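Batch manifest line 289
LIGAND: adenosine-2'-5'-diphosphate
JOB: complex structure
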Amino acid sequence: LDSTITLNNGVKMPRLGMGVWKINNAGASQSVQWAIKHGYRAIDTAKQYGNEAGVGQGLTKGLADNNMKREDIFLTTKIFNGDQGYESTLEAFEDQLKRLQTDYVDLLLIHWPVDGKYLDTWRALEKIYHEGKARAIGVSNFNITRLKTILKNGSVKPTINQMEFHPLCQEEDIRNYCEQRNIQFEAWSPLGGGKVLNDERLKKIAAKYNKSVAQIILRWDLQQNVITIPKSVHEERLIQNTQIFDFELSNEDVQEINTYDNEARDLWYSGFYWHGNPTGMKDSVKQWN
Ligand code: A2P
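JOB STATUS: finished
ARTIFACT:
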């Protein structure tokens, strides 16, 4: 299994990255430095996480300490709901670059589809892409209807749709739709925020392979061509989560895990996702910042 996937615009993206949701600036800086040291080549953040500055610090320090260059890391960030719209996206993105201490990102996503605005936001992303300040652009949390709207009205095809995805939330319809259109599917909360790790069925499978449940889930992602970005603030777990390229799940076990789907989306977010309620998101931003 190759460690990277080629996106529909030819850019190569690592199949495994580290996510930093729910980590503060200091923690993000530390996790990014550990991640770089232990072989991660992709980092995923967002303005909404309130830790772009920490990621920027960790990135600058981690690259210097490991004698690496900016091009060695695939950096993703996302446009905050409150910044959506054409001009406001362009403006906000410049600040995001400053906080991240870089002059480009590898991937820029619309974080959530704010109805009535996401098309204007997409046009701003297209401009940023054409200017070379984002090597690839894409979306997050877009259902099929909204993906269709982007494909119909946009002039650049999204490279990525990043969604909640784990054994209890498999989004089969959206994944199939994306696959047919060569839009790469990426998982947020691949471990279900940690909740899926206690599943007795997965524990049994893990024992068979002498791996942890986290490693089984992340390997299952890879074998289904899903890009995955687990989060951890513990160095030993960050290391553990990279050790997924040295074994293979049998077809039977992949199929078995495929039967675990029960559409168990993160409850708070599912409201926004289905009803497009950006007001709710404001509360969440307070919560995480
Ligand atoms: P922590 O950050 O304290 O290590 P997700 O990526 O689905 O959001 O899940 C992240 C959650 O899973 C975090 O609570 C993280 O805890 C935990 N986690 C990440 N990797 C592992 C692991 N290998 N073993 C156990 N828990 C893990």
